[in-house]
Write a structure and sequence with these properties.
alpha/beta, Nucleotidyltransferase, domain 5, 2 domains, six-stranded mixed sheet, 10 helices, 33% helix
């Protein structure tokens, strides 16, 4: 008897990254063993001309998401979205190992480290070293404001999508770094994703995320500095920030250098907690991604100020793209932007 033919079920995860200046989507196929990028989509939101009012902005973003999915014929199942910024806390805790296996007690201990009303946040904890011999264990705490999660889900629903997983953007960035740059999982490494309004900074120690924070540094502030100090219009300032204008005048280069040093100081403050640990190692390398990673000489200025090697984080360093996966996008423009969406897509939505 001949067995009936059964089509292999394809397992897709669709990472949807909603930023202040644009939408980024990464569709990953998990059916082949190693994940593969099936399709990518990027759409600008023209962040400098946002409508007033949160409700109007959410409607505008929902319409943009709907348009991107329709135009690129993106799948609508297996959606993973993220929340980040000051709405999310990611922190490594050291707690008594006696709490291992006692979920309720462990959750109560973790809630003590959330600086807000426990009812206003949704928390999750994960033991990173289960079954260890040390008297204290490492626990990863992730907490997100419930209203931020609700708003993100409502925006997606207005676009006709239903998210199966809401991830912390910091963990999505960690997933992308871990998959594409396994060398960064040794020692202490920082990752800075420089966006339009803010920069997400992660600190990773031996592959475990130990701290994540958000700082008010982004390309919008750099463009404004160029406008104020040099009278640049928005279009030219954007070209400069994207590294399309070369060579730069000495005054313009000086403005960019001063602004990037602000980011370097933020990285220093983020990693300063290492100095409080017993014999704790310092940050040994910094990876950068996001649209702001294209700011001219950003890597060189950061390396000089911090005294560490600085690398560009490539979301497709080891992630294989399917034929035609990048056809809808300008690869040079989109590649620095895709890290959060790829990281969300690397998390299966089962």
């Amino acid at each position: 008897m001949i067995a009936p033919f059964r089509r292999r079920r394809r397992r897709r995860t669709v990472g949807v990254d909603v930023g202040s200046a644009g939408l980024k989507v990464a569709v990953l196929d998990h059916s082949r063993g190693a994940p593969r990028l099936e399709k990518a989509g990027v759409l600008s939101l023209d962040g400098g001309q946002e409508p007033s009012g949160a409700a109007r902005r959410r409607r505008r973003v929902a319409g943009a998401i709907r348009s991107l999915f329709e135009e690129e014929r993106l799948p609508r199942r297996g959606i993973v979205c993220g929340v980040g910024g000051r709405d999310v806390i990611v922190r490594l805790l050291r707690v008594d190992r006696g709490l291992e296996g006692r979920r309720g007690a462990l959750q109560c201990e973790a809630d003590r480290h959330v600086p807000s009303d426990a009812g206003a946040v949704q928390t999750d904890v994960q033991v990173l070293d289960p079954g260890g011999d040390s008297p204290r264990m490492s626990v990863l705490l992730v907490a997100a404001r419930r209203d931020a999660v609700r708003r993100r889900l409502e925006t997606l629903r207005a676009a006709g999508l239903e998210a199966r997983v809401v991830d912390a953007e910091a963990l999505a960035l960690h997933n992308c770094l871990e998959f594409n740059h396994p060398e960064a999982m040794e020692g202490v490494v920082a990752l800075a994703c420089v966006g339009n309004r803010r920069t997400a900074i992660n600190v990773v120690e031996d592959g475990a995320p130990v701290l994540a924070r958000c700082v008010a540094f982004g390309t919008r502030g750099v463009r404004r500095a160029l406008a104020v100090e040099h009278g640049m219009g928005e279009g030219l300032a954007e070209e400069v920030v994207r590294g399309r204008v070369r060579p730069l005048s000495v005054p313009v280069a000086g403005t960019l250098r001063r602004r990037v040093r602000e980011l370097a100081r933020a990285v220093e403050r983020t990693s300063s907690f290492l100095r409080d640990r017993e014999a704790g190692p310092a940050v040994g390398a910094l990876y950068v991604c996001g649209g702001g990673s294209r700011i001219p000489r950003l890597s060189a200025v950061l390396a000089d100020r911090l005294g560490v090697e600085v690398f560009r984080a490539n979301p497709l360093q080891l992630l294989e793209p399917a034929p035609g996966a990048l056809d809808p996008v300008d690869v040079d423009e989109a590649l620095p932007l895709l890290a959060p969406a790829v990281g969300m897509g690397l998390r299966t939505a089962d």
